[in-house]
């Protein structure tokens, strides 16, 4: 039995974990479902461990599967970076990137560092804006590429998967009995604001708006102070924020994370930066 892990199988493993089943993973990696199932059985035989178990209609990783997935994400990211660096030698030009604040605060530094190492001749320009502004800038051709949380699919976009929205609070926050839910939300229009208010209204839970801001950075002080909670994607929150678990509050919908382009056939430099962002998202999600 080989002591070397097959990266193609690891990519399938990661897809199955991310998408929750062999059928969806097969579509992602361009194989039949039976071929994917055989790949993963061979991997389990190689390792002598069960990697997935059924949960409802989907799959969840076992403890051994969780350990392997963490390593698989790192191995795949390093593999992709090596390919990107070799194939992209001599790449030049300019790329104008737009991201929301929570992406800028979390995965963007590593993604940009990775890209700069591989493509030192490419000029980068970036903007940190609200989702609605980024969508408009893409439409106007003012930026080439944006990473967006969105409930609508832009014309030129690549899905990176659905992300669970989460009620987020400071470490010591508790909902006072009989009191409306105190909220800190971005100014409208905002996808996260809409999700919070729609969910609470549907559950019949009263709420009050304690703090508003045009920027995400303006919300965190009130949340850290325990005055209010907000709705975000947990993987892209500051480390001192905590998720408020059910049944205290009703479950929230999911939101799609997408790479959106300003044109149907983006230049090679834009595609290379998109690859760095995909790898950074994958590592962040673990």
TrEMBL record:
Gene3D superfamilies: Periplasmic binding protein-like II, Winged helix-like DNA-binding domain superfamily/Winged helix DNA-binding domain. Pfam families: HTH_1, LysR_substrate. Transmembrane segments: none annotated. The keyword Transcription regulation applies. Residues 5-62 form the HTH lysR-type domain. It comes from the Bacteria. PANTHER family: HTH-TYPE TRANSCRIPTIONAL REGULATOR LRHA-RELATED, TRANSCRIPTIONAL REGULATOR. This is HTH lysR-type domain-containing protein. It comes from Elstera litoralis.
């Amino acid at each position: 039995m080989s002591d070397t892990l097959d990266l193609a199988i690891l990519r399938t493993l990661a897809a199955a974990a991310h998408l929750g089943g062999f059928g969806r993973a097969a579509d992602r990696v361009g194989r039949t479902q039976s071929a994917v199932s055989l790949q993963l059985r061979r991997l389990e035989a190689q390792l002598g461990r069960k990697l997935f178990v059924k949960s409802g209609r989907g799959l969840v990783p076992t403890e051994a599967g969780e350990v392997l997935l963490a390593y698989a994400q790192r191995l795949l990211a390093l593999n992709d970076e090596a390919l990107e660096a070799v194939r992209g030698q001599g790449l030049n030009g300019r790329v104008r990137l737009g991201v929301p604040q929570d992406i800028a605060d979390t995965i963007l530094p590593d993604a940009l560092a990775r890209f700069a190492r591989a493509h030192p001749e490419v000029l980068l320009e970036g903007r940190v804006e609200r989702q609605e502004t980024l969508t408009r800038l893409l439409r106007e051709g003012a930026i080439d590429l944006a990473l967006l949380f969105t409930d609508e699919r832009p014309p030129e976009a690549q899905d990176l998967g659905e992300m669970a929205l989460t009620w987020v609070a400071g470490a010591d926050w508790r909902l006072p009995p009989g009191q409306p839910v105190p909220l800190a939300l971005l100014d409208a229009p905002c996808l996260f604001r809409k999700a919070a208010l729609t969910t609470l209204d549907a559950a019949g839970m009263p709420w009050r708006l304690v703090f508003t801001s045009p920027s995400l950075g303006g919300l965190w002080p009130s949340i850290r102070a325990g005055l209010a909670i907000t709705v975000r994607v947990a993987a892209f929150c500051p480390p001192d924020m905590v998720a408020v678990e059910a049944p205290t509050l009703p479950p929230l919908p999911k939101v799609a994370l997408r790479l959106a382009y300003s044109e149907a056939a983006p230049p090679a430099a834009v595609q290379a930066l998109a690859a760095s962002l995909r790898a950074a998202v994958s590592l962040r999600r673990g």
